[in-house]
Each structure stands twice: as C-alpha cells, then as structure tokens.
Amino acid sequence: MSLAHQLPxxxxxxxxxxxxxxxxxxxxxxxxxxxxxxxxxxxxxxALLLRDVATAGVISYHMGDWAPPIGIEYRxxxxxxxxxxxxxxxxxxxxxxxxxxxxxxxxxxxxxxxxAASLICMVGLLGVTIxxxxxxxxxxxxxSSLSTYALVALxxxxxxxxxxxxxxxxxxxxxxxxxxxxxLGLLYQATGTLNMADLKLHLAGNNNRMVEAGFAFILVGxxxxxxxxxxxxxxxxxxxxxxxxxxxxxxxxxxxxxVYVIIRFIYSVIGADFDFxxxxxxxxxxxxxxxxxxxxxxVAIFQADVxxxxxxxxxxxxGYMLLGISFGxxxxxxxxxxxxxxxxxxKGALFMAVAAVVLRTGSHKISAFExxxxxxxxxxxxxxxxxxxxxxxxxxxxxxxxxxxxSAAFDSGRPWAGFLIVASSLLAVVYIGRVIELxxxxxxxxxxxxxxxxxxxxxxxxxxxxxIYFGLNTQLTVNLAERAAxxxxxxxx
Amino acid sequence: MIAPETAILLSMGVPLIGLVAIWLLxxxxxxxxxxxxxxxxxxxxxTLSIFLAVGAGARPSISxxxxxxxxxxxxxxxxxxxxxxLLASVLWVVNSLYSIGYMRGHNEKHQTRFYMSFAVxxxxxxxxxxxxxxxxxxxxxxxxxLSTFPLVTHKDDDAARRxxxxxxGVLMGTSIGLFLPAIVWVYTIAGTTDFALGGILPAxxxxxxxxxxxxxxxxxxxxxxxxxxxxxxxxxNAMVAPTPVSAFLHAVAVVKAGVFSILxxxxxxxxxxxLDASGAAEPFVWVACFSILLASxxxxxxxNLKARLAYSTVSQLSYVTLGAMLxxxxxxxxxxxxxxxxxxxxxxxxxxxxxxxxxxxxxLVSELKGLGRKMPIxxxxxxxxxxxxxxxxxxxxxxPKFLLMLGAADAGERAVIGVLIVSSLLNVAYxxxxxxxxxxxxxxxxxxxxxxxxxxxxxxxxxCVAPPxxxxxxxxxxxxxxxxxxxxxxxxAGAE
Amino acid sequence: xxxxTFVIERYNYWIFIVLMMIGLYTxxxxxxxxxxxxxxNVFQTSVFIYYISIxxxxxxxxPIYTSADMEARAGGHDAAALPGKxxxxxxxxxxxxxxxxxxxxxxxxxxxxxxxxxxxxxxxxVPGAANDLLSSPALTVNDHAAAAADAAHAASNVIYxxxxxxxxxxxxxxxxVATTAVGLALVVRIRExxxxxxxxxxxxxxxxxxxxxxxxxxxxx
Lengths: 493, 496, 221
Hints:
The complex is a heterotrimer. Chain B is mainly alpha-helical. In chain B, about 70% of the residues lie in helices and about 5% in strands. By secondary structure, chain C is mainly alpha-helical. Chain C contains 11 helices and no strands. Chain C is elongated. The interface of A and B includes residues 400, 418, 440 and 443 of A.
C-alpha cells in the first residue's frame, strides 16, 4: 500500500490523531505551531485529492478494505473535493491566524485545548464531506458539532453570553442531528443500505411516503445545521460571542458543509428527478431561500454589532445557495457550488478582519470601526475587498457567484429569481456600505491604535487576495463546479 | 509609433503608473502635479494615436483575460469610443490645470488622495471607452463609480457624507439591480456580450411582446450615470464635491460614460434596426423628453449655481438618450455629437462657477449681479459655454440639436421637435440670464453699474481662468470643424 | 377493526412517536436548562428505540452464529458465508418497513399483502416489487419477516435479528452521551457565570447587562 493510495484517509486521520497530542503540549505556542503544521498537511492532501479527482475521476476508498456497501466508503468526486479544499484551506489560513487573537480572548491554559478542539472540528467537517456512507455523515457531523459547542463556549471569557449561545446551539444542533438520524433510519428501512451510491440505486424510481418522510427529516435536520431560514436562530448568537477566530472558521466552513450535505442527499441519494425532490424545490427550498435572502439581509442592516451583522448576512447567503439548488438545473447547481466556495472565502476574510479589529479595539460593535481606514489601513482594506466581494462587485469572487446565479436564473426561465437575487445584493450594499463608510469617512479614534500583527495580516491578506484571484481566474471554481454539477445531475464521472 | 493594441492597454496602465507616482510624491506638491500633467500628456498622445488609427479604418482589439467561458475582459475600439477617450483625456489635462489652480487657491486637504482618485477615474473612463463587450464595460463602469466616491466625499463633512451615500447608493443600486441582470439576460439570450455593429440580439426577439422594451428599460435606468429621470438624483447630490470634480467628472467623464454606454448599447447590442422593428424604444423617447423638460424646469428654480448646472446636465444628458432611442442615423449622430459638444460647454460653465467661488466666494445665482464687471473674462467664457449648451450658432452645441431635430423628423416624432424647441427656450432662460445679470444688473438696487476696469480685475488665479477660456474656444472651434467629426463618426450611424 | 389492528401492530412506532414528542415538547417548553437537556435525551432515546425496533425479527435470535448454523453454512453455501447481514438485514427490514403515513387509504390491501407477496421478492428491495411491499407493511410484522427470512435461509434454520441498526445506535448512544456531557458542562458554567439556569432569568440578566437599566448594578441582580 503506497501512501498515495492512502491519500483519502489523510485529511481525516491526521488531525484526529494530532488532536490528543495537542492537548499534551505544554503551552499555547507549541500547540499553535503543531496545529498549523497539521492544517497545512491536511490542506496539501486535500489539494492533491482535488487534483487527482479533476484529472483521474472519482476516488473510492474502502475503509479497512471492506468493500461497499458493507464497508464504509470514502468517495471523493469533484463536488466534495472542492468543499474539502475549501474547508482545509480556510483551516490552513485561520489556524495560523488565530494565535494572536485567541491569546487575548481565552485563558492561556486553555490554548492547547482550543487547538485540539479546532483540529477535531476540522476532522468532523472534512469527514462529513469526504464520506460516502450516510450514517458516517451523522457521526462526523456530531464530532464537528460537539467540538464546535466547546469552541463557541470558549468565548465566555470575553462575554458570558457565549455560554448561553453555545447551549442553544447545542440544543438546536442536537435536534437537527437527531432529525437527520430519523431520516436516515427511514431510508435505511426502505432500502437496507446506508451507502449513498447503493441508496440511490435502491431508491431509483421508488417513491413512497416513507422515503419522502425520510427526505423531509434529512432536509430539516441539515437545514438546521446549515442555518437555513427560518432555522437559523442559533447562529447569530453563536457567531457573535464565539472567539473571533472561531467565528471566522465556522462561518466559512460549517454551514457550507451542511449545504453540501443537502446537495449530496438531494442529488446523490434521493435523485433530483424524484418527484418529491422537485416538489421540495418548488414549495420548500425556493420560498425559504428567498425569504432568507431578504429577511436576513434586512435584519443585518439594523445590527449594531459587526459579527452579528455578518452572521445574518451568512443566513442570507445560504439563501442564495439554496436558491441555486432549487432551480433544479445543472447551471443552478454549479452556481450554488461556486457560491459555496466563494462565500467561504469572503466570510473567512471578513470575520478575520473583524478578529483583527477586536484584537486592537477590544470590540466588535460597529462603532469600533470608526476611522479604522487610517489607523489600521491593511485590515480595513482587506475588509473592504471582502465586503465588495460580498456585494458582488466585478473582479471579485462575489461577482462570479452573482453572475453564475443570475445566468442560471435567466437560463432556467426564472427572470424573477434573477431580480430577487440582485435586489437582495442591494441590501448587502447597505449593510456592508455602512461599515465601509464608517471606516473611511469618520475621523480616526483618539489614542494609540496599532495595525494588527503580521501573523494575522498575512493569512487575512491571503484570503483577501484569493477573493480577487478567483474573481479573475475561474478555472478552479467555475470549471470544476460545472463539471461537478454535471456529474451530480447526470450521474457521470 | 506604438501599435494601437498596445496603446489601448497603455491608456489604462499609464494613469495607474501616474497614480503610483502621485502617491510617492505626496510630500512634493509641485512634482506631484507635474506627475499628473505628464501622465495626462502621455495619455493624450496615446488616445490621439488610437483616434488616428481608428480614423484610418483600423479596429484595434485585444483580449486580456477570460473570466468565465464566454466572458472576457476584452477591448476593441470603434469611432465612438475613440472620440470619447480622446475627449476625456484632453479635458483631463485641461481640468488638471484647473484643479491645481482651484485646489491651491482653496487650500484643500487630502490633495494627494484627490489626484490619485482622479487617476483611477480616468483609467476607468478609458476602460469604458475601449470596452469590447458589455461585461468589460460593466467592470469599468463600476470602477468609475467607486473611484469617484472619495472625490464626492472629499470635504469629509456631514453634507459630503450624505451626498456620497446617495451617490453610491443610486449608482451601485441601479447598476447591480438593473444593469447587471440586463447584461446577464443579454448573455443568456445571445450567448455573448460582444459589441457588434447592428446588434447581437436575434431578430425574432423583436416581436417578443414586451421583452425588448423591458430589456431596454433595464439598460436605460440601469445605467444611472446617464441620469435619465428618475435615476438622476445622484448627480445633484454629487455637487458637494470640489468644483474640478463636478467640472470634469460630472460634466464629462462619469456622465458621458453613462450616455456613451447607452448609445453604445443601443447601437451595438440592440442595433437600430432591432429597435425600430420592436418599437421598444418608443416609450423611452418620451421618458427622455420628460426628463429634458422637467430637469430644465427644476434648474430654473435652483438658486445655487452648481445645482442649476447639475440639473442642466440632467436635461442635456437626456438629449443623448433621446438620440439613442430615436433609433435612426441622424438621432445617433446627434447623440454622439452632443456627448462632445456638451462636454466642452458644460465643463466651461462648471469651471467658471469654480472660478467665481475661488475669487468671490459666491455660490448663489442671485449673488452674481454685477460681478461680470469685476470678472469679465470668466463671465465671457460662461456666456460662450451657455450659448453652446442652448444650441446657438456659431457654437458647437448647435449641431447636435439640429441633428436631433432631423432625427426626430425622420422618426416621425414631430412632438419631439417641439420638446427640443421648448427646452432650448428654457435653457436660454436659466443659463443666459446668469451672464446677463452679471453684466447688466447692479449688485444692489439703485446702485450705478461700474464700468469694467480692465487694469484692476478681480479674477481668480490664472490657472482657474485659463482652462475655461480654453474650453470655450474649443466650443467655438467645434462649430467650425464639426464636419470632420461628423465624417469620423459616420460609420456608427451608417450601420443600416 | 382493521384500523385498530393497524394501529396496534405498529405499537413500536407509536412508542417512538410519543417519546419523541414528549422530548421535543420538553426541550421547547421548559425554561430550566437541565430539563431541556433531559428532554433532549428523551428525544434522542426515542430515536434509539426506533432503530432498535426495526432490527428486531420475531423468533430471531441475537446475531451471533450458533454452532448448528455454522455447520449448515460450512456445507456449501459459500455465497452466504460472509456474515449474513445482507440478505438477513434486508429481509427483516423491508417487511418491517411500514408506511404509517398511508394508513388511511390502503387498509384492505394491507391485510392481504403479506400473503400475496412472494417472499423471495421481499428480500431484495428492487424497484417494482419493493414498491408494493413498502407501501404494504407487514400486517403481522414479525410473521412476515420470519417467512421471508425462512425462504432466504432455507439451509439454516436459525433466524437472526438484523444487527446493523443496533450497531448504528450504539454509535448514536455514544454521541448522545457526549452531547449530554457537553451540555451539562455548559450548564455548570452558565450557573457559575449567571447564578441561574432558568432561561427567562438568563435573558433578563443579559438584557439588563446590555442596555443597563440604571448603572452596572442591575446586571448582577
């Protein structure tokens, strides 16, 4: 067995084994270096996987050499390779970034634990993405969720509301996960298998109410995890009170992974031609997506706290992804995948910029941003780039997302959806514009205020630059997403 | 002599190099201004070389990067773009001279930021002028919006912030909310967004009910820089900016980029024949007429000089839109010439307004009585500019009015001719009355008018007065040399 | 009569549903965080019961090979030599799979179904036949399952329950325990930080702290 053969397991096993070691490390700095190294290894492995999948097609890895459908299969196609790369890439940026920020936000002694929990969270998210076994999704989902609850609660040192936020997240998350398990049980009862590909074979042409109920449970369960409107209530508090670096990581990965699972179940398990799935598109996903896009964006406008504002914005952005899925066309799906990837980049950069501001000003209230363009020009510039990207200004990734979504809307004969998309982007102009205006036009605050340290600026700018780079070069995102969508819908390679 | 293709890229690159130079020379104002002027001079040379090449029949084009499948950042120059680019670059130099006089005469803060933003704006204007497809046009259109925002809010006070918010809100709102979906729609219908003479929309679409009109409407209101009512409100709000900004950007670069886009879209995306066949343009002819008249009437009621000029701009820009919507060769030619002549005329007026402000600190029309006797040069330039805007011979502004009337007659829209005549009368009332009062009314009732004391004028600094005089002379020359320009632009109108 | 049978035969589902609703209600309606956690546990447990019940086959024994079975298999059934999960599992599953949602309209059909459906088809949930079967849940859940299993394993007389759901739910139990542990830990921390574990009080304290009724004093109330 060559190492190359074992590549698919590396993203999951490495951080899993590394996490306990991180706990044993004597201080935060060592744990930070260790976690950084691991995250880079994982990112490299995921990038290699993406390259392999893009050139050689689907990779199927059998856990313990047990052949599916009995054994657990890791099945990597373009869709999840893309998500894997996103998640590991964000982790590889956020973990190095986190040190300076976390050191001020949590207890020094907790830092090795923080990095252990981060690694475990990464395991969970990557595992959910990589696995081809439906029940395995649940297990990894809970691995990531449990570590997330702990990570969110670490924010308690700055603000005790992190504890209640984490508790509510735990309750909602567990309900979501349990719904997901019920759905799986129903599907299992109907087919006797839990392997996704096998499930699809057995379900083909097989619609009865048990399967429908199962699908509904799964959609609701995952909708909760993805903060799909109106099941997003846990999210604003969790993102607001979590340590800033945690918000940056979660906002750009965890909900995206849940959206990915929804896509995976719709297309690779249920099958989009399933009557029920298309009914769900028309009567559930579309209205909820649109409601989320508008409701959450409008709420975002009135927030006095930038992190909370960005959290609500995420709810709206999830709406875009679900809307793309709900078109039921290849283009719509590929637009969703593109936006999923791109939104990870934007939100990652935005939350990281906020983390830098929190480090220097000690607050994430909107008033803390006044005049920052003069005092912290690099942080402010990165925030502005990512913000413009969120709005969808040309030459940024956000524009590519919008373009893809719009052309999917027009192509599938839904011009109204196109106008709804742009109308809700205008709301983004308002809430992002509000912050940008404060940063640029207000006089700088009195007193000493230094630019963030290089260890934060460098990863922040890597993401900000990615926002522009992938806005110009869409080989990776759009091309792969289109191929992934074609494969998901057509069942081809 | 460099190849036109290279010149296209350089025309965007040079201002950006200039930008860096300006930034580096922050502490040496004289060198900094020299950098601006040198950049301007090189840019004029570049645009002139492209202008000549296009005049010789070349259609240089160059593709920079492919973003998504059919979406490229792509430049290709045709006569209209060449004229617009030359116009913008020449007037930029004039305006830079004026800016130096104004900004120093006024001791403005953040001058480096001011010149840097200007450099980005001119690069964006070049991008708009040379764009080879709608996608590229859109990108530079947005860059233009964003780069001019710091200029609008230059004063950093509450009024500037409020104005800036409306400015950005309206321009971004319409461009993302209407212009972008329109582009995507065109892309999904035609499979491309490349500009092609005669249009790219499939002919059968012309009979697709309301769709063509809807699409045209998205463009007409989406390109809010063309200031068609009711999406004009950003323009009066932009007047909080320093006068050089108003003079150049809000009389030339930004607003002309808007009407240029409208004209270009109607010629190269829809095509005259398509517009004619579908009847899509008909409603917008009336929207434009409405805009022309209403804006003129509002202008009459404005006592603030810059606000009056702004509304006059709104009205005059709609002439171009009107020409585009008439969808025949005379209308298009009229619109194209209007872009050029109005630029000279309106820039003169704004620069005069700025000169008045620098010299006499007056901003209201009612305060200008008798001032002509103290600042005769400024007011003579103002008078020439106003005459050109009104459309009186022997000034350049008379040609587009004439052509538009011909176009209206061709299109069988006699009422439009009436609108044009009424509008000119309104222009006379609100523009020519200003120099008339300045020369012939005493500052206070009953006071005798002093004769002009030529040896002891109270003019603004030289660099504030010379530029408007230059543009005023330009407006006269445009009357005499209109024919070469007409011939130069003929290919765009001769599509049929 | 039929309806009552229909209801009674699915008693395992009713237990599951009732427990689930009790759990959810507790989570939503109770303000005490510990009670919420208890509700969450009840909710999760209901799902465990559901999983366990679908693996059960009447007359089936624990899924461990008996010696007699081993011998029977050794006598030439190579194909089935691997742990009989596949065939067994499916056999048990499909027949237990009840479409409780369609209760109202196909009662008559239901009563007949187990007898009309050939057992062999029941085993492999292939489209056409499975469809029928799925919407016609076992009248006598376990009898039918037994019949199906019988047919499949004529060679061996031993019937095994389906082990897979049990295994799955073992995992889920572990997850549930972990969740409860984290939840309780959070409650402890909340009590330390706020001095209360009643949701309403926590909110009130937070509101006071955020908007400050008087000065900072109100926050500690």
